[in-house]
Amino acid sequence: MAKIARYQQIINDLAHQIAIGKYRVNDKLPTEAQLALDYCVSRMTVNKALSQMENKDLIYKVQGSGTFVKESTIHKQFGSSVSFSSDVNLKGEKPGSLLLQYRLLDPQSFPAIASKLCIPMDNEIIYFERLRTADDTRVAISHTYIATNVVPSVALDELNRSFYAFLEKKYDIKPQCTNYEVAATIPTKEQAKLLEISNEALLKVSHTSFTQNEVPFEYNETYYLGSKFTYTTKNDCIKLR
């Protein structure tokens, strides 16, 4: 196995500390001299690590003041099953959720959703709406539909945390594939009020998630602030409209 260069080890470690919240947005990092002592390397190695982190938009430098954690857009990748919480954590911010609605739906009244979930008509669909936040800033509204033939129940208090973490712990479900649809949209009055915006466009992202056995269990529609999220492509499983 190839040995990881020291500067890359520093990048990995600092990025991890940002992800777990040790350093938050706009927090000042230790000086290059202190980092050189901490990692037992030369200042040249530290400088190389910080320069690459700056190029990746993880940090920014202020002449005469130091190096700080940068607030930037949250990058998501099509074709991956990384949760909202993980994406926000990776940017050094704290994810949050506020439950707006929770109810059970009759599949016969929502045939399009039932079709996406391949759910028997005698089962119910769990529906919940959440306001998603990053460092207490409102950044998205999500609408989630869950097939009860795969996920029989969801405790309300679990919806204030990472839903995917709950699925893995409770049902051993690790989403393996997602089909995406993307559309730019103007917020409704209700969405604008919830997100505390006026004229900002939203990015509507819809996806269907599957279990390890390729059984559909979730259909989700999330409206993201266009200024806060950037999506990158990974595969051809995308339909743009």
From TrEMBL:
One of the GO BP terms on file: negative regulation of DNA-templated transcription
HTH gntR-type domain: residues covered: 4-72
Record SMART domains: HTH_GNTR, UTRA
InterPro entries membership: Bact_HTH_transcr_reg (IPR050679), Chorismate_lyase_/UTRA_dom_sf (IPR028978), Tscrpt_reg_HTH_GntR (IPR000524), UTRA (IPR011663), WH-like_DNA-bd_sf (IPR036388), WH_DNA-bd_sf (IPR036390)
An example molecular function term from Gene Ontology annotations: DNA binding
Annotated Pfam families: GntR, UTRA
SUPFAM superfamilies registered for this protein in UniProt: Chorismate lyase-like, Winged helix' DNA-binding domain
Top-rank taxon, per record: Bacteria
Keywords noted in UniProt: DNA-binding, Transcription, Transcription regulation
Official protein name in the record: Mannosyl-D-glycerate transport/metabolism system repressor MngR
Lineage of source species: Bacteria, Bacillati, Actinomycetota, Coriobacteriia, Coriobacteriales
